[in-house]
Amino acid sequence: MGAVPDPVRRMFEADTASRHLGIELGDSGEGFAVATMTVTATMVNGHRIAHGGYLFLLADTAFACACNSHGPVTVASGAEINFIAPAKQGDELRAVARERTRYGRSGIYDVSIARGADVIAEFRGRSRALRGVEEK
After folding, report:
1. Which of 22, 39, 50, 36 lies closest to 113 in space, CA to CA?
2. What is the pLDDT of residue 69?
């Protein structure tokens, strides 16, 4: 496992939304991050499957950690998700974010969410590093 870069650790420790949902930061490096989450009873919808918004949030958290690993404060400029299979209460999910490319202040990142060996969602995020914004 690689060391978690300081900008990622500081950003994640300040991310009360992700931490409140039980998301944990795993391995992280330049342009790479792993986040995990267990689907709880409050995360399932009327079909008894995980609400897609929670899967999006898990992927978005991994994406944020990966794109902020370079140091400048970076935010999402857009993202999309494709749901492949449902997640259910008790499922342990792992989101792996990988940088595809960076150009200027922009970047593209892919995140795969898996339950064990099965990929259940694919997310693509577009990032933008902010000018003149200091890390908190």
Report:
1. 36
2. 92
